[in-house]
Write a structure and sequence with these properties.
The complex is a heterodimer of chains A (333) and B (350).
Chain A (H helix, E strand, L loop, with lengths): L4 E12 L2 E9 L2 E2 L4 E5 L6 H8 L7 E6 L2 E2 L5 H5 L2 E4 L11 H7 L13 H13 L15 H14 L4 E5 L7 H17 L3 E6 L2 H7 L2 E4 L7 E3 L1 H6 L2 H6 L4 E4 L4 E4 L5 E5 L4 H12 L2 E4 L7 E4 L5 E4 L5 E4 L2 H11 L1
Parallel strand pairs in A: 4-9, 4-10, 7-8, 8-9, 14-15, 14-16
Antiparallel strand pairs in A: 1-2, 1-3, 1-5, 5-6, 10-11, 12-13, 16-17, 17-18
Helix pairs in contact in A: 3-5, 4-5
Chain B lengths: L10 H23 L7 H10 L5 H35 L12 H20 L8 H28 L3 H24 L3 H11 L11 H16 L2 H7 L3 H6 L4 H23 L5 H13 L4 H23 L10 H20 L4
Classes of the chains: A alpha/beta (333), B mainly alpha (350).
């Protein structure tokens, strides 16, 4: 199967005059139809530059980007408009445009000189708005929307463009957490039900791990590492890429954790989700959670959310919530 | 399946256009029937529409002064406003206008060279040269404007960034003004006054014989502008989005600069620099029709521009005044508050 997007020996970066600033070279990446790929990496890793090069806004310093087997650089703007749509971080400040007007601009490549919309265009526009859940706000003015709503409108614009490939540069930046989740969920849905191929860059590692079919890890000065997210966790690449002092990637929970220094030990058996949250709280306040034995305070989850603590002397304590447990342990010290 | 057709003007927009068209006709008539010389409406309409009433002086006033002036105002208003809208959209800047690329400064420089240096070469003041002087002024203004336009177009081929291009335009404007300052400094008072009067703008300088060409050329460029409304709409999203939607950014930028520049160059050659119209009218039009869709906005900006220019001209020649006020005083007094109002209104959304 030929990949829908493929880069060969690609060098990305900036060219000013005869000077070249290369960010990455020898980039060889591929995306297959129907996949959701996420580019992860810190600021300055070259995520945006890679996306702009793939979308044809920047010329490759070397090598080629192929879409559907043919180089992007050899296609006209018009041809590209039918192959890929973009959602960028560029601020769109349009006054007096309705949401449906913005979405309908996605249809412009399909229209004639005066952008007259036909039945088929209206169909695509309303379908796109339905897919991202903004049909209810189609008559609202774009400049009055929140950042999250604007992002969805621009995604709908990309959908209305009806291209097999959609490329998004940090679609979840500037959004609150529920909106981040919602946007990612919408994008995942589009690859699964609408057959779209999606490439996006993001800082939201944990969200990306949940939705991505393939992850591209980028950092300046390192070669790009790609793979299925679960493989990247198991072979320690995730940890390797993001490890900083006192921050580590916890392969058990798939989240980043702050390292805490453990002065004391406490015994507890892993178990239900209640136990997991108790463990997190204990680690935060400085306990190392180990296998229970008689010399330590031991925690046994009680009925419902009651927590039972057994001290080395054999005394039992009951707590209604984690906060009172922690307060008790602090007093004990 | 039924879909809402958001892009067709609603009935309210239709009525607004209807009333504005009526207003345009009324203002043309006001411009014809009012002025420093009182001509009774009945006689005036007789002369204009029924070819009657052999009153030679009134006939001359109507056909050689008021009618050309009304049409000059109408065309200049439409042209400058369209040019302003093109610049605002191209540079995605609400404060852009026809003068932003330094083209009207080029016209001023051309006129300054001619008016202020004429005496040195010809031995007599330009104002003594009569109608040849008038044509000379228009030619000089046009030459100056086209000179700057040529520089900007060349720069637009070399420079990728719109912001850089905008700055180049503004700097050319400043350089032109300072050269004009030098010329002013060394010129004598009579010539200086002539130059200052040209700089105040006037719709009265297109001769009846030149009128058909003035109208035809501007109309052609305005019609040509209408063929790029789709690209202008996409420009609202920004250059990258526009490119992704199939627009050849460089080509469209070249076309918009050329069309906008020609509109300014031709208009300014005859009317002198007209302040604020091109900047304010697109904003007024957006607010009246609550749209930024250029398929409506561009033609309606032309309509609104024509109306406002006619209104300014009518105010400038109100019967109470002795003679006529300079047109720029009126456009500025109307335009400045509008620009402030627009900035206050858009502060939150831009």
């Amino acid at each position: 199967m030929t990949p829908i997007l493929e880069t060969k020996d690609l060098a990305i970066g900036f060219r000013s005059g005869s000077k070249e600033k290369v960010l990455h070279r020898g980039v060889a990446l591929r995306i297959h139809k129907g996949e959701l790929s996420c580019i992860l990496g810190p600021n300055g890793a070259g995520k945006s530059t890679l996306i702009k090069t793939i979308a044809g806004f920047l010329k490759p310093l070397k090598g080629v980007v192929n879409i559907d087997g043919a180089p992007v650089a050899e296609r006209s703007y018009r041809e590209l408009a039918f192959m890929l749509s973009v959602v960028l971080t560029d601020k769109v400040s349009v006054l007096y445009s309705k949401v449906s007007d913005i979405v309908s601009m996605g249809r412009y490549p399909h229209t004639s000189l005066f952008a007259t919309l036909k039945e088929n265009d209206y169909h695509h526009i309303s379908k796109a708005m339905e897919q991202v859940g903004i049909s209810g706000m189609k008559d609202r003015l774009f400049h009055e929307l929140s950042d999250g709503e604007k992002q969805k409108v621009l995604i709908a614009k990309g959908l209305a463009q009806d291209t097999p490939l959609i490329i998004l540069d940090e679609p979840t930046a500037f959004l609150d957490f529920p909106s981040k989740m919602e946007v990612m969920q919408i994008l995942l849905q589009l690859t699964r039900t609408a057959g779209k191929t999606i490439l996006l860059s993001t800082h939201d590692v944990e969200l990306a791990l949940q939705v991505a079919d393939r992850i591209w890890l980028m950092d300046s000065g390192k070669p790009i590492v790609t793979g299925c997210p679960e493989d990247l966790v198991l072979n320690n690449e995730m940890n390797h890429f993001f490890e900083k002092k006192d921050i580590f990637f916890d392969p058990h929970s798939g989240t980043f954790r702050i390292k805490t220094s453990h002065q004391k030990k406490i015994g507890m058996k892993a178990g239900s989700h209640v136990m997991m949250w108790i463990k997190r709280a204990l680690e935060r306040v400085g306990y190392e959670v180990v296998e229970p034995d008689d010399t330590l305070h031991r925690i046994i989850a009680g009925e419902s959310s009651n927590i039972l603590l057994l001290s080395p002397s054999g005394k039992q304590h009951m707590f209604e919530d984690i906060e009172s447990l922690i307060n008790f342990l602090k007093k004990e010290q | 399946m039924k879909h809402s057709r958001t892009y067709y003007p609603g009935s309210r927009t239709g009525w607004k256009i209807f009333w504005m068209a009526i207003l345009l006709v009324v203002l043309v008539l006001v411009n014809l029937f009012t002025g420093s010389v009182h001509i009774p409406v009945k006689e005036a309409s007789g002369i204009l529409f029924f070819n009657g009433e052999d009153h030679i002086i009134w006939k001359n006033i109507l056909f050689k002064s008021r009618l050309p002036q009304a049409f000059t105002a109408l065309m200049a208003g439409a042209a400058l406003s369209a040019s302003g809208l093109q610049m605002q959209t191209l540079f995605r800047n609400p404060l852009a206008g026809p003068s932003v690329l330094g083209i009207s400064a080029g016209a001023s420089l051309g006129v300054a060279f001619l008016v202020l240096l004429f005496k040195g070469f010809a031995g007599s003041s330009l104002s003594e040269a009569g109608w040849i002087g008038n044509i000379g002024v228009s030619a000089a203004a046009f030459a100056g404007a086209m000179g700057v336009l040529a520089i900007i177009v060349l720069a637009s081929k070399k420079v990728a960034s719109n912001t850089v291009l905008l700055i180049i335009g503004i700097m050319i404007g400043y350089a032109g003004s300072s050269l004009v300052g030098v010329l002013k400094f060394y010129s004598d008072q009579a010539d200086l006054k002539n130059y200052v009067i040209w700089g105040l703008g006037s719709f009265a300088n297109v001769a009846t014989a030149e009128m058909p060409y003035f109208i035809a050329v501007l109309t052609l460029i305005l019609i040509a502008s209408l063929f790029f409304v789709k690209h202008m709409n996409l420009y609202l999203l920004g250059e990258r989005y526009a490119q992704n939607l199939g627009v050849n950014i460089r080509r469209i930028r070249f076309v918009l600069i050329l069309l906008s520049g020609l509109l300014v160059a031709i208009t300014t050659a005859y009317t002198g620099p007209i302040a604020f119209l091109g900047l304010a009218v697109p904003h007024i039009t957006r607010n009246i029709f609550v749209t930024s869709d250029h398929r409506l906005l561009l033609p309606l900006t032309m309509l609104t521009g024509a109306i406002i220019a006619l209104l300014c001209n009518a105010i400038a020649r109100m019967p109470g005044f002795d003679g006529a006020l300079p047109i720029n005083t009126i456009t500025s007094i109307i335009g400045a508050p509008i620009v402030i109002w627009v900035i206050l209104k858009q502060r939150n959304s831009l």
